């Protein structure tokens, strides 16, 4: 009987057949679950990632502001001011700083500018022979000096002009 021609495998001659799949895959290292290279300790469960201490301890409260102590400065000055006292040609009740008491001023009339002007005016208008000296006898034309009756200190001067 005529046999079928053999399968032409001559073209494959010279090429060794590839190794079976099982042999090829058997050499591949199989993944075997083993101990992990890193310890799998549950860090989150044991301790928090950062210390949960009170932040108030980390940041202490600021020290209380030192309130500036303002002490009222009380300065007592004794000023002798004859406020409201107007020296005219009449005695006035004033405070004498030397006697430290209220006294009534003593008047002293002295010849001032008005006295001399009056004398000159009378001389111009013909009042010779002593008539021009009348203003030196009139107190209303003289300046007034207020003195203390006790210590005779000058408390004020009133000038006509
Ligand atoms: Zn006095």
UniProtKB/TrEMBL annotation:
<feature type="domain" description="LITAF">
    <location>
        <begin position="76"/>
        <end position="160"/>
    </location>
</feature>
<dbReference type="Pfam" id="PF10601">
    <property type="entry name" value="zf-LITAF-like"/>
</dbReference>
<feature type="transmembrane region" description="Helical">
    <location>
        <begin position="113"/>
        <end position="138"/>
    </location>
</feature>
<dbReference type="InterPro" id="IPR006629">
    <property type="entry name" value="LITAF"/>
</dbReference>
<keyword id="KW-0479">Metal-binding</keyword>
<keyword id="KW-0472">Membrane</keyword>
<dbReference type="GO" id="GO:0098560">
    <property type="term" value="C:cytoplasmic side of late endosome membrane"/>
</dbReference>
<dbReference type="GO" id="GO:0098574">
    <property type="term" value="C:cytoplasmic side of lysosomal membrane"/>
</dbReference>
<feature type="region of interest" description="Disordered">
    <location>
        <begin position="1"/>
        <end position="28"/>
    </location>
</feature>
<keyword id="KW-0812">Transmembrane</keyword>
<keyword id="KW-1133">Transmembrane helix</keyword>
<protein>
    <submittedName>
        <fullName>Lipopolysaccharide-induced TNF factor</fullName>
    </submittedName>
</protein>
<dbReference type="GO" id="GO:0005634">
    <property type="term" value="C:nucleus"/>
</dbReference>
<dbReference type="InterPro" id="IPR037519">
    <property type="entry name" value="LITAF_fam"/>
</dbReference>
<keyword id="KW-0862">Zinc</keyword>
<comment type="similarity">
    <text>Belongs to the CDIP1/LITAF family.</text>
</comment>
<dbReference type="GO" id="GO:0008270">
    <property type="term" value="F:zinc ion binding"/>
</dbReference>
């Amino acid at each position: 009987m005529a046999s079928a021609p053999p399968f032409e495998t001559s073209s494959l001659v010279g090429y060794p057949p590839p190794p079976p799949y099982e042999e090829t895959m058997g050499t591949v290292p199989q993944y075997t679950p083993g101990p992990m290279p890193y310890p799998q300790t549950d860090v989150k469960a044991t301790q928090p990632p950062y210390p949960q201490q009170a932040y108030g301890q980390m940041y202490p409260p600021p020290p209380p502001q030192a309130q500036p102590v303002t002490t009222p400065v009380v300065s007592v000055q004794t000023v002798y001011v004859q406020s409201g006292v107007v020296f005219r040609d009449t005695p006035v009740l004033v405070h004498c700083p030397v006697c430290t008491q209220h006294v009534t001023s003593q008047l002293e009339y002295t010849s001032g500018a008005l006295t001399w002007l009056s004398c000159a005016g009378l001389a111009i208008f013909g009042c010779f022979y002593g008539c021009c000296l009348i203003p030196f006898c009139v107190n209303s034309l003289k300046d007034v000096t207020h003195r203390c009756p006790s210590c005779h200190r000058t408390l004020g001067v009133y000038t006509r002009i």
